[in-house]
Amino acid sequence: MDIHEYQAKEILAKFGVPVPRGGLAYSPEQAAYRAREIGGSVWVVKAQVHTGGRGKAGGVKVCKSEHEVEEAADRMLGRKLVTHQSGPAGKMVNRLYIEGGVNIAKEFYLGFVLDRSLQRVIVIASSEGGMDIEEIAEKNPDSIVRVPVEPAVGMQAFQAREIAFALGIPGAAVTEAAQTILGCYRAFRDKDGTMLEINPLVLTGENHLVALDAKMSFDDNALFRHPDISELRDKSQEDPRETQAADRGLSYVGLDGDVGCIVNGAGLAMATMDMILLAGGAPANFLDIGGGATPDRVAKAFRLVTQDKNVKAILVNIFAGINRCDWVAQGVVKAVEMTDLKLPLIVRLAGTHVEEGRRILAESGINVITAANLAEAASKSVAAAKAA
Ligand code: GDP
Ligand code: MN
């Protein structure tokens, strides 16, 4: 789960990470009021959206007066912000964060991720902040330092200082930098983060450190033990298809092709997508109905897939172990009748109660193309989508 910048900063501040003074605004008037509250003569108006690259897309505006703050807020609110990371649909701007301006002397990059091959939290830092880490890796790979953290003891103070030295942070600010890095690490660890990115981490003209931007993502499977994090969820920033599915106990991943896929199990979903690509088509999504799918759940899955206007054909591919083909077949029949399905439907069933499942489909009278194996199912789906 992702959260907004201002929410991440609130969490980080509790772990001793210095952040600029700021306040949330839902309207231009409120934005101007926030600026007055913060004081000073320079403010930054920042669109709160779950995506990076806001600066280049007009989602971050430095302002010199309350009037400018109000105008910038008026331009951003209620519009979709399209950045190079957001995808073409963009993200709706409903909230703004107003911050006091910071006198930037130098920008650094600081990130925390889980390195799966090392099975460790790894700190990634660079003296070249402000641009994307991908761009840094391309333009100045030597500036990147990587420090794995030993999980048994956690991050040590010396490691944080070493990172600060590697970044070339001046002596006067090293203690503050080490505190900042350690604070970020603790927030990441204690809250079960999967990603934390401070870009840029800024050295001010007065030799202080400030986290000027903050992005944080959390492990969905650990949210049950962090109610404070769960409640930060903002559904307006998520793919509505994926949110609807998750709320119904299904996992849905939206893609760009035209074959809708209803499968059981992530591994089978991958294989199904590979086979569709091999047959010359492209999947519109994959929807995992999981194990023990009842007819009702299958029907819900159908409703989700048919809501996607890109879908030209539906492929149901079930390898039933825990699942039962007869239940899936019942669900398919129910769904086709309920949704009055007009799209070509291709079904491949294998495993538990397969004979019964095939019989249900055959006797139902619904219009269904059956396939004996996955290769056949994939090529029939691609052909049907192309013909549509
Ligand atoms: P992102 O583009 O979504 O990553 O948004 P950021 O929060 O990183 O902002 C983009 C850029 O705006 C930063 O890299 C800074 O250069 C600039 N910026 C943000 N806040 C301030 C500020 O308080 N003062 C100044 N001068 N620039 C800022
Ligand atoms: Mn940034």
Automatic annotation (TrEMBL):
Substrate binds at residue 264. GO terms for biological process: succinyl-CoA metabolic process; tricarboxylic acid cycle. Keywords: ATP-binding, Ligase, Magnesium, Metal-binding, Nucleotide-binding, Tricarboxylic acid cycle. Mg(2+) binds at residues 199, 213. Belongs to the succinate/malate CoA ligase beta subunit family. It holds the Pfam family ATP-grasp_2. This is Succinate--CoA ligase [ADP-forming] subunit beta. SUPFAM superfamilies: Glutathione synthetase ATP-binding domain-like (SSF56059), Succinyl-CoA synthetase domains (SSF52210). GO terms for cellular component: cytosol; succinate-CoA ligase complex. Heterotetramer of two alpha and two beta subunits. It catalyses: GTP + succinate + CoA = succinyl-CoA + GDP + phosphate; (S)-malate + ATP + CoA = (S)-malyl-CoA + ADP + phosphate; succinate + ATP + CoA = succinyl-CoA + ADP + phosphate.
